[in-house]
Amino acid sequence: MNSITPALLVLADGETFEGEAIGHQPTNGIASGEVVFNTVMSGYQEVITDPSYAGQIITFTYPHIGNYGVTAVDDEYRRPFCRGVVVRELARRRSNWRSSAGLDEQLVRWGISGIAGIDTRRLTRHIRDVGAMPGAFGTASHEELAAAVNVEPGTTGVDLVREVSITSSYAVAGPSPDAWNVVAFDYGIKTTILRHLSRIANVTVVPGTATADEVMAMSPDGVFLSNGPGDPQVCDYAVKEIRALMNLEIPIFGICLGHQLLASTAGATTFKMPFGHHGGNHPVKDLRTNRVMITSQNHNFCVDHTTLKVAAEVTHLNLNDGTLEGLVYTDLPMFSVQHHPEAGPGPHESATLFDDFAALLKKVHGRVGI
Amino acid sequence: MILLRYSKRFTEGWVFKVPKRTDIQTILVIGSGPIVIGQACEFDYSGTQACRVLKEEGYRVILVNSNPATIMTDPNFAYRTYIEPLDVDVVAAIIERERPDALLPTLGGQTALNLGMALSESGVLERFGVEMIGANAVAIETAENRERFKEAMAEIGLATPISGFAHELDQAVKVATEIGYPIIIRPSYILGGLGTGIAHNEQELRELAVTGLAASPTSEILVEQSIAGWKEFELEVMRDRADNCVIVCSIENVDPMGVHTGDSITVAPIQTLSDVEYQYLRDMTFKVIRRIGVETGGSNVQFAINPVDGEVVVIEMNPRVSRSSALASKATGFPIAKIAARLAVGYTLDEIENDITKQTLACFEPSIDYVVTKIPRWAFEKLPGAEPILGTRMQSVGEVMAIGRTFTESLQKAMRSLEQGRYGLNCDPTEQEYASIETADLVARTFQGTPERLWWVAEALKRGVSIEELHDVNRIDPWFLDQMLMIIEEREVLGHTGFAGMDRVSWRRAKRLGYSDAQLAYLWGQSEAEVRAARLAAGVRATFKTVDTCAAEFDAQTPYHYSTYEDTDEVHPSSKPKVAILGSGPNRIGQGIEFDYCCVHASYTLRDAGYETIMINCNPETVSTDYDTSDRLYFEPLTFEDVMNVLEAEKPMAVIVSLGGQTPLKLAGQLQAAGIPIAGTSPESIDLAEDRDRWNALCVELGIDQPPGGTATTADGAAAIADVHGYPVLVRPSYVLGGRAMQIVQDEADLRRAMAELAADGSLGREGGLSADRPVLVDRFLSDAIEVDVDAIRDTTGETIIGGIMEHVEMAGVHSGDSACAIPPQSLSPLMISTLSEIVKRIATRLEVVGLINVQFAVKDGVAFVLEANPRASRTVPFVAKATGVPLAMVASRVMLGASLSSLRDEGLLRPAATGTHVAVKEAVLPFNRFPSVDPVLTPEMRSTGEVMGIDATFGIAYAKSQLAASTRVPLEGTVFISLADRDKAGAVSAAKAFVAAGIELAATAGTASFLRSHGVEVAIEVAKLTDVVSGLVKGRTAIDLINEGKIAFVINTPRVGRGDQTDGAEIRRAATIAKIPVLTTVAAAAAAGMGVAEMTAGGVHRAFAVKSLQEHLGLV
Ligand SMILES: Nc1ncnc2c1ncn2[C@@H]1O[C@H](COP(=O)(O)OP(=O)(O)O)[C@@H](O)[C@H]1O
Ligand SMILES: Nc1ncnc2c1ncn2[C@@H]1O[C@H](COP(=O)(O)OP(=O)(O)O)[C@@H](O)[C@H]1O
Ligand SMILES: [Mg+2]
Ligand SMILES: [Mg+2]
């Protein structure tokens, strides 16, 4: 029987939750960040290791977390960048032939703190009604935690891309040496995205801060703008380079933050949604085929396409709240989606978007890669 | 470039854009018929939803279903409702009469699906230009024909276990030897694993193959490598005509492969698969539904996964709404059947609103933030001879579902929902039964799936057996075993802490693991009340969360809740006048859908009358647990603690306990003591009717005749009583349901044996055993008495109306629930009828009944003996309502809340009964085909699982219809075998004559033959007695030979009195059951069948059944 270490979770507006400390135990007994929730019922490891959660504390609405352990191949990034996890029930025993370790020990290894035993439904409803907000949890006193919350900046106006992005480029081999050459900006690029890209191209992953010149020096057939954490509005450096590439009419495909940056480059403004989309069950309609895909989603900011200065067509919409999910630029070889066609975790049906990218490259270059 | 704004308006713009199909107006919906093992009231739930939706959409719905106890057959759910046998010719007649444009066969289970196929194959659909919607014949064929299914799966690159097919025995053996043992036999087109089984050697295989071939309508069996022990999963999928697919729910079986899903403890969502594995299953499920070609609607796909290396194989797909879809709907709040019906008429998923969130569309995948556990309930104790071992053949008669925030909580809630003396996974008196079992034996026992398995596992864990050791034996996933271990460990902690040492934190931890107050009371030797009080004092009370399909991501207004122990409550009761209705819990023999029907009617009518209705129940198959049947639904166990939690939160003005059978009635006293206002008849009156001695006194006081008798706790005591009143006597334990363990004994020796059995019987021990306050009742058995059931309603003004008087076909001695009965009575004199009515009124008045009362009589030599009176809704209420058009349950509900019968007459709710124009016959449906080792003879112990109704102008035809509906086709040609006990011979002459007159030839045993001949009935074949042939006394063919040679169309065989089992008769009846030949075991039934034959062949012409809708019978049109 494992003895428990009581811990508290305190939100910016004073709401307090009782639970027990799990995972890494910080010396000051405090972990803080912006509290968000995710409604996936499986895929906790992919979620925790998704760098888009940099600066955030992830609440899992599904009560049992850790049941099937963890395995290195399911990691989405070199390490997690989230600030902590909130769960109702952490499995003390894992069971699955794929797993190589338990989630609790892995959290310790990652240095990620967590809090368990929380009424995560109460927390989720609160965030849903009031909006995502800073919070702090741990074994520290209520006062200390409250103080920590006050100095917690949240994610608006914070540049988290620099925090997570790699500093030196690396290559991922494609299906064949003469497949397409694609340069991918790493704003926090997920492993499953690279798996899909490398189905169609030899990929060179460059830092999120790379310049257009550096990219062009690699004479790419196309450019990919990855997902990533935080507020697109602070990534003006990225927007500058993307504009340069846009002017060169290079084929571009963007996902999530990549989609927002591309739209910003095209003059659109973005706004923060009340509590974002974080789950694996969002219906997205492809307006061209009228087919609905169930998609994986993870974003707090959204593009207001009505402010676009460049001609584009809305290709995808979220059926739950009507928000923008995808754009095709009318006069430029560019398209992007807000949701995650690579899944990891989540449904696979929209993975065909990567093939659309291959098709675009073919159209532009008039030849078949591979 | 389209212009859009960030707002919900937008999505609303998408709803109902494309119009529904306008090329069809009339749709024929086929129901699933009687409740049988493998097909319970989940199809009343799905069928009712479908009918409602199609009606809303403006279609003319024609419904056919032989089961009168269903909500769907209420006249207002369809334009025309046919309570007729689900038989190709009968339905063809309905089609010819109603000329539907389309047939929807996917919402009535396997029965409707197979009937739909038969109608299409026989060309009926084509002839009348009826289009099959929901699924087409090819799709059904591809899914249900195991061979075609395998090919299809191979095409889309999906693995299935190695296998071959056989259409006869030797072929099967050959295939098996090639594959190697163990082998599983799986027949095509079956339901609930009928005819399946696992063979470990050739001999076992030969036996299984024979039954398997017989079980398959197409006599095709799949001979397959057994992968028993693998993990089993199920995904519920929906597809629309635009090819959008969504997974509604994923289910994991706690019992690994080898135990039928319907008999497995299952959990939603899947607990032990990583997202990578889950998404693979999801992708495969879409591939399957697309390849099989189910264009619109719901299906389920079953997978097995090798726990060692993750290898995945497909087990089967059901191209229709199934039991699992009902479970999935209740587990997620996603109404599969309702949506399947909309899809069938042309909507796409993104055109249908999610009526739970009201903000989003049905085109999404529910995300849940709780754990759902389903546990089946079996009835082995009622089927002597049937071994309580679970396999690939489904045997459960019902199930419970529980919702908790964690698996531990939902598991223990589900266990106490079963109402089988268990308070949870451990910590209750019943656990003491295991003390005597050696640990090694205990562990070994968990290898087999049995109704007790998890409790054995718990006991083993308690004794320190490791998870590894247990897993090696039973293959239950270690994660589940560890969760159970957490519960067991907590017991230790609670033991140490002790009642006095409990603080808020420890109370909360225990409750969050699902511990009930009753378990804790047992552990600490306190009373449940003390425990509850102390817990509440510590500030630990149940909180209620909501089932909202979206894990709280959106604000949902669902009225669907469950209790758990968390920080905050989501229920904010209104101040409107509220009535709580307690449901009837899991289906079981003796308490089934009839009671759910009553509860649902109460909810409907009270809502109409302006009350807010609150339903509490734990049976996922039912209409009562549909979230929009009542204003609020609480999915909770029906125990005092769980019910009180809800009532304290809701504070209703009245609670209805008399419509859900014994389950809620048992709680009446306790609830009243806790200050809860009970609607209708007072708990005192209920006790007065139930307590043997007080009841006897009352009968004396009212001068009502009862069978003479007394109570005893010893064999000598019983013998003494019998000596006074004379044999035969009827013995039974007190406080049991459905004639449990009741038997007729002929002499003292027999009596002593019976008493010994009662004292010993383990399952009875659990039901209370023998003691001074639980004596055995010994009554004079009234032979050849006519049994009569009467349902009546009394109001607060003292007026009593007789709802229905049902004369049984079988004589008293066959449980009322197992015998056929007719409205109106066929042989009772007007005088007797008024006598019975008058007695019922006297009893109702004396008991100050407010609401329903049911009285059972045995009428012998013109004297009416009262067998029992139940001041509550009875099993026959729905039948009476369908036969007379008087909605008894609705009227009673209003009466219980103070309305007078006269005021209800003025309202028009209480209509005069529609009689005189028709006869309605109710027939019971028995589960013997699933328990070949059980003698299919009718006794005072109820064994039927469901009922059907036959309705027509005359008794004979109505009876014949009821028999066909119960798949006992009364023959109009061929050979009938008759063998009768001496006392029955005279009574069978009329029937025998009728058969011969119809051109049917008779075969009989010597005695019966000579008796019939001496009465001028010609007997063509005389067979030798089994025993004589076996003992070599005589040569010649026996009845068994004829049956096996397929020479017999129908068997009439009445047992010699007494429980004597191994008689010729027993052998013959079993052989017939196995050969699927109809058997009648009472002379009364034979006589009725004779009347049917006579009427159907009058004037030498064979008449087909004429069909007529209920609306016409009841003069509603
Ligand atoms: N190859 C097999 N090896 C072991 N068990 C099996 C195999 N195939 C099926 N079963 C078991 O038999 C049960 C019933 O089989 P199924 O085809 O689902 O029958 P039904 O059509 O009645 O649902 C399954 O739930 C599973 O537990
Ligand atoms: N004294 C009796 N004589 C003949 N048959 C009886 C007698 N008592 C009971 N029975 C038969 O036994 C059946 C079950 O008895 P009942 O009291 O209704 O049990 P339960 O209350 O469990 O349904 C009745 O339907 C009737 O057929
Ligand atoms: Mg099955
Ligand atoms: Mg099946």
Shape of chain A: globular
Radius of gyration of chain A, in Å, reads 20 Å
pLDDT average of chain A, as an integer?
Answer: 95
Quick one: overall form of chain B? globular
Number of helices of chain B: 41
- Number of DSSP helices of chain A? 10
Chain oligomer state:
heterodimer
N-to-C CA distance of chain A: 57 Å
C-alpha Rg of chain B (nearest Å): 29 Å
Contiguous low-pLDDT stretches of chain A (5 residues minimum) are none
Percentage of residues in helical conformation of chain B: 25-40%
How would you explain this protein's 3D organization?
The complex is a heterodimer of chains A (370) and B (1117). A ten-stranded mixed β-sheet of chain A has the order 10-12-11-13-14-19-18-17-15-16, with helices on both faces. In chain A, strands 1-2-8-6-4-3-9 form a seven-stranded mixed beta barrel. In chain A, helix 8 packs across helix 9 (257-265). The longest helix of chain A has 14 residues, at 352-365. With 370 residues, chain A is of the alpha/beta class. Chain A has helices at 44-48, 103-110, 120-130, 142-151, 161-164, 191-200, 212-216, 236-247, 257-265, 352-365; strands spanning 6-11, 16-23, 31-38, 56-60, 64-65, 84-86, 89-90, 113-116, 133-138, 170-172, 180-186, 201-207, 222-225, 252-255, 269-286, 291-304, 312-318, 324-329, 334-337. Chain A has ten helices and 19 strands. In chain B, 37% of the residues lie in helices and 18% in strands. Chain B contains 41 helices and 38 strands. In chain B, the strands form seven sheets. A seven-stranded antiparallel β-sheet of chain B has the order 14-13-10-11-12-15-16, sandwiched between helices. In chain B, strands 31-30-27-28-29-32-33 form a seven-stranded antiparallel β-sheet. In chain B, helix 26 packs antiparallel against helix 27. Chain B starts with 7 loop residues before the first helix and ends with a helix. The interface between A and B is large, with 72 and 71 residues. The structure holds adenosine-5'-diphosphate (ADP) (2 copies) and magnesium ion (2 copies). One magnesium ion (MG) binds next to loops of chain B.
